[in-house]
Amino acid sequence: MKETTLRLTVTDKSTDLSRPQLNMEKLRQTVERIFEDVRQNGDEAVRKYTALYDGVDISQPLVTERELAEARQAVPEELKQAIETAYRNIDTFHRAQFTARMPEVETAPGVYCWQEARPIEKVGLYVPGGSAPLFSTVLMLGIPARIAGSKEVVLFTPPGKDGRIHPAVLYAAERTGISRIYKAGGIQAIAAMTYGTESVPKVYKIFGPGNQYVTAAKQYALQLGTAIDMPAGPSELMVVADETARPDFVAADLLSQAEHGPDSQVICLSDSQEFLRQVAAELERQLKDLPRKDIAVQSLENAKLIYVDNPADTIRIVNEYAPEHLILATGRNDFYIENVLNAGSVFIGNYTPESAGDYASGTNHTLPTNGYAKAYGGVSTESFVKRISFQRITPEGLQNIGKAIEILATAEGLQAHQNAVSIRLKAISNE
Amino acid sequence: MKETTLRLTVTDKSTDLSRPQLNMEKLRQTVERIFEDVRQNGDEAVRKYTALYDGVDISQPLVTERELAEARQAVPEELKQAIETAYRNIDTFHRAQFTARMPEVETAPGVYCWQEARPIEKVGLYVPGGSAPLFSTVLMLGIPARIAGSKEVVLFTPPGKDGRIHPAVLYAAERTGISRIYKAGGIQAIAAMTYGTESVPKVYKIFGPGNQYVTAAKQYALQLGTAIDMPAGPSELMVVADETARPDFVAADLLSQAEHGPDSQVICLSDSQEFLRQVAAELERQLKDLPRKDIAVQSLENAKLIYVDNPADTIRIVNEYAPEHLILATGRNDFYIENVLNAGSVFIGNYTPESAGDYASGTNHTLPTNGYAKAYGGVSTESFVKRISFQRITPEGLQNIGKAIEILATAEGLQAHQNAVSIRLKAISNE
Question: Does the global pTM surpass 0.90?
Answer without folding.
Answer: yes
